[in-house]
Amino acid sequence: MMESSSSGAGKSPSRSGRGRPRDKHEQMRQRILEMASGVFQRFGFSKTTMEDIAQGIGRQKSTLYYYFQSKEDVFAAVVARELEGEMAMIDGLERLDLPPRTLLHKHAAQRLHAAQREYGMVLKSGLDDDRMRQEVSSALTAYSLREREFMGRVFRRVNLDEPLMDIELSALITLAQSALRELEKRAAEAGGDYRLEEVARRWVNFLWYGVSGYRNAPPIED
User: Fold this and answer.
1) Is residue 178 part of a domain?
2) Tens digits of per-residue pLDDT, 101-111?
3) How many domains, in total, are found in the chain?
4) Contact 200, 105 (CB under 8 A)
5) Is residue 49, in this structure, part of any structural domain at all?
6) Which helix (H) or strand (E) is 79 found in, with range?
7) Which one, out of 8, 88, 157, 188, has a CA that is 20 to 30 A from the CA of 42?
8) DSSP label at 4?
């Protein structure tokens, strides 16, 4: 994935109020990524061209090549930008002094809202393309590991008579992530914010009451 240019790095802030070259560079870069995200959503990765993205920002195609080497670089930066935002939201949740179940509900709702946005379609178009599948998968793996850390901390706060063993905790997190991914795939079918919040609430309750009551469950009959 390409990072922003270091143009202007090390210079003192401008006193003229016009902003530093680096600021302008980053503003344009973010504008390109914002537009590219919508273009990838409409056409999919394979059918999108650099010309399509350039037209969206009202610039010549040569402008794009000043910031990105190829369409693949643009797409990778779009994915990285979105996932960085998702990780930042996890960081924000960890700073909140809220009950564990509330934290899980907020996290699930954020995931579903993200999937319902164009971001979900952008990811899908990359996973459907052989050239970008590995890039997208690697980015999603990094996010998944961060999410596992978050869920692990939350589930360890569940007030049980006996703490969860590591193998139980790992299985629980995997189950939670798998269920959430399935809900994400269907997020576009949900109508409105209330419906997404309700889906997130039910996901949490299925998990939560299963965890809190599983030790008292009756034996499985042979």
Assistant:
1) yes
2) 899 999 999 98
3) 1
4) yes
5) no
6) helix 71-94
7) 88
8) -
